[in-house]
């Protein structure tokens, strides 16, 4: 079996992310980039890379961690996030579902078919709200090539064509309070992120979320991994087909503001407020 040269492998990771930032113009000079830092390998690699590129691309860097309230799991991620931010001398701001909405994810998960449904809605909301308050020009997430094609195929399977506008390495600013997201790991497969973390002995939180196995994403991930092991290169081909398709679906969703909380929303009442109201209604005697 061929052994990997750590220096060459790290250079491949850095060069791939660097060219995504450059080719897709993810960052403008002077901007403040806030990294969504969960403490997992993808977000820690994103922080590592951006802290290395700060001078070259001339931007400032901060991070935000969200505690969803998943017992036996999230606390370890937050610990890894704090350590990474400290080691790289990056300011870290923390928010939690409990403080913002009055409940932890664990408290409400039974209402839904999958923990990922409420988690996704509330985390997206809180990440954006916190990053906006921090003055972020861009919100960098750790989405890798696998995450992107899983999301793409899930939307495809649900015929949810509106979501196609949310794909790609950079989202446009479609509302003054909606911080545009960027994905520096867009062309890096998940397996390579894991190899990078192990090879460089980086402290990351490797455990799987206890709710992950109930999601459609987990099934899609297994399916794609199977396909890739039989036909190497399939994942990259899907991303390339998607990139061509996505150019034809750039029409943006119109955004206004939620009449309850004032956060950006394409609906009168945003999904987070709608779900919080339902949960509170059920809780009240
Ligand atoms: Fe949230 Fe699902 Fe991710 Fe767990 S796997 S952190 S529930 S989105």
Question: Would you mind describing this structure in some detail?
Answer:
Keywords: ATP-binding, Nucleotide-binding, Transferase. Residues 33-163 form the tRNA(Ile)-lysidine/2-thiocytidine synthase N-terminal domain. GO terms for molecular function: ATP binding; transferase activity; tRNA binding. InterPro entries: CTU1-like_ATP-bd, Ncs6/Tuc1/Ctu1, Rossmann-like_a/b/a_fold, TilS/TtcA_N, tRNA_thiolation_TtcA_Ctu1. The protein is built from eleven helices and seven strands. By secondary structure, it is an alpha/beta fold. The longest helix has 18 residues, at 6-23. The chain is globular, with a radius of gyration of 19 Å. The chain binds iron/sulfur cluster (SF4). Residues 68, 115-116, 119-120, 209, 211-212, 215 line the site of iron/sulfur cluster (SF4).
Helices and strands in order, then pairings?
Elements: H1 6-23, E1 32-36, H2 41-57, E2 60-67, H3 74-87, E3 91-96, H4 97-101, H5 105-108, H6 116-133, E4 138-140, H7 145-157, E5 181-182, H8 190-199, H9 216-230, H10 234-246, E6 256-257, E7 264-265, H11 271-283
Parallel strand pairs: 1-2, 1-4, 2-3, 4-5
Antiparallel strand pairs: 6-7
Bound molecules: iron/sulfur cluster.
Residues 68, 115-116, 119-120, 209, 211-212, 215 line the site of iron/sulfur cluster.
């Amino acid at each position: 079996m061929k052994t990997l040269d750590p220096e060459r492998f790290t250079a491949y990771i850095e060069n791939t992310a660097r060219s995504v930032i450059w080719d897709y113009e993810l960052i403008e000079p002077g901007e403040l980039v806030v990294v969504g830092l969960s403490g997992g390998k993808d977000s820690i690699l994103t922080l590592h890379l951006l802290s290395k590129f700060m001078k070259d691309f001339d931007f400032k860097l901060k991070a935000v961690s969200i505690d969803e309230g998943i017992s036996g799991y999230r606390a370890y991620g937050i610990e890894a996030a704090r350590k990474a931010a400290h080691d790289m001398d990056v300011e870290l701001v923390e928010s939690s579902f409990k403080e913002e909405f009055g409940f932890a994810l664990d408290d409400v998960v039974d209402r839904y078919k999958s923990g990922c449904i409420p988690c996704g809605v509330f985390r997206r909301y809180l990440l954006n709200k916190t990053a906006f308050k921090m003055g972020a020009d861009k919100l960098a997430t750790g989405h890798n090539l696998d995450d992107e094609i899983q999301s793409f195929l899930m939307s495809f399977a649900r015929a949810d064509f509106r979501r196609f506008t949310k794909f790609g390495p950079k989202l446009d600013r479609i509302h003054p309070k909606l911080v545009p997201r960027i994905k520096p790991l867009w062309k890096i497969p998940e397996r390579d992120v894991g190899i990078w973390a192990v090879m460089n002995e980086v402290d990351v939180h490797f455990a799987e979320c206890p709710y992950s196995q109930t999601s459609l994403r987990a099934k899609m991930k297994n399916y794609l991994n199977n396909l890739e092991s039989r036909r190497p290169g399939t994942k990259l081909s899907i991303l390339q087909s998607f990139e061509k398709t996505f150019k034809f679906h750039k029409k943006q969703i119109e955004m206004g503001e939620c009449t309850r909380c004032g956060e950006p929303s394409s609906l009168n009442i945003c999904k987070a407020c709608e779900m919080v109201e339902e949960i509170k209604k059920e809780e009240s005697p």
